[in-house]
Write a structure and sequence with these properties.
Length: about 290
C-alpha cells in the first residue's frame, strides 16, 4: 500500500474489495472467498456481517492484522491453516501443518457409513478409522451415531494430538492409537473400517498446487507404487480385523478405479465403486472376505 493508502480510513467493504483485487493479481484461485474469510476472522464477525456492516470503519490495529493474514495467503499458505480451523460435515475442526485439510469430497464416507450402520439395526457396532489425521471422519461419524465404538489410528503423533483436541472440544469419546495403518492394533474384529489414505503418486505430487506441496503433510498425501501402496496394505490387512459381515470403505482418487477393483477382488468377494454427490467415483466398497491365500 502507498503512504496515501496507508493513511486512508477504510471501511469494511472498501478493504474487502481491495483485498479481493489484490488476490486476483496474485492469482489466488478464490480471491473473494479468501478475502471474506480472512477479514471476517480478523474482525471476529461472520461473512454475512461483513455486508451488514459494510461501512464500519476499520481500525489501524485491524488493518495491520488483516495485512499480516494477506501476506501469509499470497505465500500460498492455505486459508484453513491461517485460520487454524476448517469446516467439515457439521463441525469445525482445528487444523495445522501436521494434518491434511479436510475436503468436502470425503463426506461421502460419512454418508455411506451412516446408511450402512442404520441398516444393520444393531445397538453397538465397532468402527475403526485408518489414517484419521484431524479426526474429522471418526468424530463426525461418532457425533452422528453416539452408540458406536470408535477407534482412530494415525502414524503421526502430531496429527493424533490435533485429533484428540478436536474430539475433546466436540465432546466425543474415541480411542486414539498411534499406528502405521493397522500394524499396532491388537487382534480384534470391527464391523466397519473406513479410511482416506494417501493415494497420490510421486509424479502427481509434483503437479499439485503450491498450497498443497508447500504446506500440507506429504505423509498424508503420497503413496508409492503409483499411489497404490497404502491401498494394497489396507486391503490385505483389513481382512484380519473385519467381521465376516463387515464393510470396508476407502476413499479413492481420480483414475484409480480399475487398478483398485483388481486389487480388491484379490481379497473380497464383493466390490463396488460408490459415487459422491457430484457423481464422481469416490469410494471403494468391499465386503465378503476371501480366505487368505
Amino acid at each position: 500500500m502507498s503512504e496515501d493508502v496507508e493513511n486512508k480510513i477504510w471501511n469494511t467493504m472498501e478493504i474487502l474489495d481491495w483485498a479481493t483485487n489484490y488476490f486476483k493479481k496474485k492469482n489466488i484461485d478464490t480471491p473473494r472467498l479468501d478475502a471474506q474469510l480472512l477479514l471476517s476472522h480478523c474482525l471476529k464477525i461472520s461473512k454475512m456481517e461483513l455486508y451488514a456492516y459494510f461501512d464500519r470503519p476499520i481500525s489501524v490495529e485491524e488493518r495491520t492484522h488483516f495485512k499480516e493474514l494477506i501476506k501469509r495467503r499470497i505465500k500460498r499458505e492455505p486459508v484453513a491453516y491461517i485460520l487454524g480451523t476448517k469446516g467439515f460435515w457439521k463441525y469445525d475442526f482445528k487444523v495445522n501443518k501436521h494434518v491434511l485439510i479436510p475436503r468436502p469430497d470425503s463426506e461421502v464416507l460419512i454418508e455411506k457409513s451412516i446408511d450402512w450402520i442404520k441398516d444393520k439395526k444393531e445397538s453397538t457396532l465397532s468402527v475403526i478409522d485408518i489414517g484419521t489425521g484431524s479426526g474429522c471422519l471418526a468424530i463426525s461419524l461418532k457425533k452422528e451415531l453416539p452408540d458406536i465404538q470408535m477407534v482412530a489410528v494415525d502414524i503421526s503423533k502430531e496429527a493424533l494430538e490435533i485429533a484428540k483436541e478436536n474430539a475433546t472440544s466436540l465432546e466425543c469419546e474415541i480411542e486414539f492409537i498411534e499406528s502405521n495403518l493397522l500394524s499396532k492394533i491388537k487382534p480384534q474384529l470391527f464391523d466397519l473400517i473406513i479410511s482416506n489414505p494417501p493415494y497420490i503418486s510421486s509424479n502427481e505430487y509434483q503437479m499439485l498446487q503450491e498450497e498443497i506441496t508447500q504446506y500440507e503433510p506429504i505423509l498424508a498425501l503420497v503413496s508409492e507404487n503409483n499411489g497404490l501402496e497404502h491401498y494394497e496394505k489396507i486391503l490385505k490387512s483389513s481382512k484380519q480385523y473385519l467381521k465376516d459381515d463387515g464393510l470396508l470403505l476407502i476413499e479413492i482418487g481420480d483414475h484409480r478405479k480399475n487398478d483398485l477393483l483388481a486389487l480388491a477382488k484379490n481379497h473380497f468377494i464383493h466390490t463396488n465403486i460408490g459415487l459422491d454427490l457430484s457423481g464422481n467415483e469416490r469410494v471403494l466398497e468391499c465386503f465378503g472376505k476371501k480366505d487368505s491365500q
